[in-house]
Each structure stands twice: as C-alpha cells, then as structure tokens.
Amino acid sequence: MKRIFAREVMLEDGWGKDVLIEIDDGGAIAAVRTRQKPGGAEDAGGPLIPGMANVHSHAFQRAMAGLAERMGSPEDSFWTWREVMYSFLKQLTPDQVHAIASQLYCELLKNGYTAVAEFHYLHNAPDGKPYARRSEMAMSIARAAQESGIAITLLPSLYAYANFGEAPLTSAQRRFATTPDAILGMLGELHEACRDNPEIRFGVAPHSLRAVSPPMLKDLVAGVHAIDPKAPVHIHVAEQVKEVNDCLTWSDCRPAQWLIDNMPIDSRWCLVHCTHVTSSECEKLSATGTVVGLCPTTEGNLGDGIFPFLRYREKGGRYAIGGDSHVSQTPVEELRWLEYAQRLTMRRRNVTASEEHPSVGFNLWREAAAGGAQALARPMGVIAPGRRADLVVLDAEHVNLVGKKGDALLDALLFSGNDCLVKHVMVGGRWLVRGGHHPDEEKFAARYKEVKKALMA
User: Fold this and answer.
1) Chosen CATH of 51-376 out of 3.20.20.140, 3.40.1550.10, 3.90.550.10, 1.10.760.10
2) 374-390 tens-digit pLDDT
3) 278 burial via Cβ count (<10 Å: 0-12, 13-18, 19+)
4) Which 8-state DSSP code applies to residue 62?
5) Residues with a known catalytic role
6) What does the DSSP 8-state code read for residue 340?
7) Using CA atoms, how far apart are residues 182 and 205, in angstroms rounded to an integer?
8) Do strands 14-23 and 29-33 pair parallel, antiparallel, or not at all (unpaired)?
9) Which residue in 8, 49, 106, 232 has a CA-CA distance of 20 to 30 Å to 391?
10) Mean of pLDDT values over 295-308
C-alpha cells in the first residue's frame, strides 16, 4: 500500500486539508482521510488535483501544427484545412505515427492530462490497402501509450463514405476505409495484444454521420456492446454548418437530432464538438446523460464556431475537453478558451461561476474531469476511494501560484499565463512526471525530430 500526504487536495466538493491518500497495488485509491498527520507517508510536494482526461485526440495531427496557417483561399475554412491534412498524411508510416504519438502523449502528461481517448482513423497503407495485420496503425498508437505511461481509451474509427447518402470515398480518404467487421476485428487483435495492461481500454468511433450509413452505425454499436457493454462510443457531430446543411438535405433532420431520434444515445456516448446545435437539441442531449466533447483550441483554429455551452450546462449537460488537432497540448488552454469564448459571446465575465460555486477554475476543472472520466469509461476524474490514482501535483512555489490556497490555485492555474504549473504527475499509482520532466522525454523528442525532418523534407 502506497501512502501519500498533501497539505491541500482538491476533493469532489471542495478542498481537503492535511490529506492522507492510500493507494493499493493495482493503482486505485483505497482511502482518503483529511486532518491527518504525515506519519511517514510520502510527501506529495504540493497541492493535489485530479488528473484530466483528453477525450478527443488525432495524434498524428500533432506533427502538422502550424502547417495550415497560410492562406490557400479567401474562404479558408475547415474544408480547406482538411485538404492540407490529407496531403500531410499521405506517406505517414506506423513507425512515424508511433514517434509522433509518443511525443504528444509525453507532452500531455507533463501538462496534467493523465488519460487520452484516441479517435483513430488512419488505418490503411498509403495505397489504401490494409496492412497485413489489420490493426497495425492502432498498435503503433497503443505502443506509444504504453511507452509514455498515459492511460488510453483507443477508439478505432469507422469511416466508409465521403458524405451523406453513401457517397464513395475520395482517393485522399482511402487510408481511412473500414467496415464494421474490420473495426470489430481490430478490437479483437488489440484486446489480445494489450489484455495485461490496465491502462488501456477500447471503444469505437463511427467517424460522423456523413462517413457511415445508418445500418453500419447500428451494427458497429451493437457489435462493440456485445463485446463490452460499457465500451464508449465517440462520434463527430455538427462541427460545421455545411455538415448540418448536408444532413438536412439527406434526412430532413439536423445531425444531433437524428442521433437522438435514431440511436440509443446514453452515458456511454461522447458527441464531439456539437458546435452547431440548437437550444432544443442542447436540452435533449443533456437529458440523455451523454458527454459533449469540446475542443476549444481546435474549434477556434479551424473557425468552426462556438458551442452553446451555457445553455447546455444550465440544463445539467455533461462535458469534457479534448486536444483534437493538438495545436495546444495543455488542459489549461482548452478550459481557458472554453470560458473566454462564452465571455466574448455573452459580453460578461466569470460565466462558469455561480453564487454557490464562485470559482471559475474549480468549476471548470471539476466538471471537465468528471465528464472526461465518463467519456473514457475510466474510474478517474476525482480523488476518492475506488478511483484510479491519477494525481497532478501543482508547483506551489511558482511565481503564479505562490501564496495561493484552495480555489485560488485553480483560478491562477487557468488564468495567470502560459507557464506550465504542473510539478509531478501520477497515473494509476505510478509517478510518470517528476519535477516537470518525463524520464523518456529526450528519447521521444529525438525520435520525433527525425520524423519531423523527414516529413518537412
């Protein structure tokens, strides 16, 4: 039994003082006791907060950050950015994807993410043919997670069509081509290869309504839940206006409403983006218990729009944050811009605060961590018995945090600049980041640099 002592710990309903945390050999929290004495326990070295989940990742896109920031058209949008992305991924190999993902996952850990959901759709070789081992690319992602130590929920993505109405895939999309049977077969291979690692979970990710047919979607969901009734299902929803309009043409229904009417949306689902949903859809989604996965830095980078967060949150909707294209690798920036976008829309401050819970930082971290745990189907998100020991230690001596206590720590963490204020990070009872450093960060960076040089050439 590992014992850790901290003067301040963020608990579910507030801050505990002089807290003793016991962690069992499986990496789960066995007990949390306040008003204790250290009694020989390991000193955490600073205030403790629960690790954050990154619920939406396309790891390979980390290596293209900055490549799409030159005008290609006066009407640049997500759709022109997508063409740059398609060009970038043409020659990516499994080894290159492994190197990129290892670097990314190390960065995520150092910034306070302790788990990630990898929405993985780069399945095939450059010529569009499956690898000899169908899950080859997914295995490269799993190996990167194992090497870095981050917990992962790996979501092989079903991508069968170019648009609504079963439009054939374009040549640029041939690396994504899959069927429900192929995805379920990948899951079998992945389960077999990773069955001894408690930090790896699996689910599925039908890419979007435009990329799958209704029968395929239903077969995939039924198939994964026959394997694991708790397996998460993630899907892109209503990210762009064009997608909404195309869905209306196809079905006379908006994407979110179509899912509500036609699929068993519940707490196992994570609907990513939902940028262009109506007030009525917000209310209906909040009632399903699903999680909306918000990616503010990517949505801002792509010019997608702003999710009606306040309406959704007022109705009790659950949400989480993701890095998506990884133009940012820190939960601080995602949460900051989630709040800032609402301030700009509403033209007022502290929109995530209330009289009952006046701290914006505390509210955002607590709610996103809880939603992330649900979306990844992982017992994390709060420091409590029965949860995984995913712990983040803040650097209380940093100039931005010094003298701060309780909620003021989280308010300063999110709104005092861009220095990394994370000191140590634990995942499943294991310290992976110490003093702001991962033991393998130099190896990951060297490998990543070589891949970047090759890709840029």
Assistant:
1) 3.20.20.140
2) 999 999 999 999 999 99
3) middle
4) G
5) 273, 324
6) H
7) 13
8) antiparallel
9) 232
10) 96
According to DSSP, the β-strands at 113-120 and 291-294 are unpaired
pTM: 0.97
Using CA atoms, how far residue 391 sits from 50, 87, 329, 344, 380, in Å, is 5, 39, 18, 33, 9
Strands 422-427 and 430-433: antiparallel
The three-state secondary structure class of 457 is coil
Nearest by Cα to 10 from 370, 401, 360, 382: 382
2-49+385-441 belongs to which CATH class?
mainly beta
Cβ atoms of 250 and 165 within 8 Å: the answer is yes
Q: How far apart are CA 424 and CA 46, in angstroms?
A: 9
Q: How far apart are CA 6 and CA 130, in angstroms?
A: 50
Domain boundaries along the sequence of the chain: 2-49+385-441, 51-376
Instruction: With H, G, I as helix, E, B as strand and everything else as coil, classify residue 17.
Output: strand
Residue 111's identity, in one-letter code, is N
Extended strands (E) in 13-70: 14-23, 29-33, 42-43, 48-50, 52-57
For residue 363, give the amino acid letter. N
**Residue 242 CA, distance from chain mean position:** 24
Is the per-residue pLDDT at 73 higher than 90?
no
The first and second tokens of residue 413, run together, are: 């963490």
Instruction: Name residue, tokens 């899959």.
Output: 178
Residue with tokens 């294991």: 430
DSSP line for 410-442: HHHHHHS-SS--EEEEEETTEEEEBTTB-TTHH
Residue partners of 201: CB distance under 8 A and separation at least 6: 151, 152, 153, 154, 231, 232, 376, 377, 378
Distance CA 232, CA 220 (A): 12
Contact at 8 Å (CB) between 422 and 80?
no
- Token pair in block for residue 372: 């992330």
Mean pLDDT of 218-239: 97
How far is 101 from 95, CA to CA, in rounded Å?
A: 10
Distance CA 342, CA 282 (A): 16
Tokens describing residue 428: 């499943």
In sequence order, the β-bridge partners of residue 53 are 115
Per-residue pLDDT tens for 421-449?
Answer: 999 999 999 999 999 999 999 999 999 99
| Rounded Cα distance, 348 and 19, in Å | 37
Determine the 3-state secondary structure of 312 from DSSP.
Answer: helix
3-state secondary structure of 273: strand
Tell me the C-alpha distance between 49 and 71, whole Å.
41
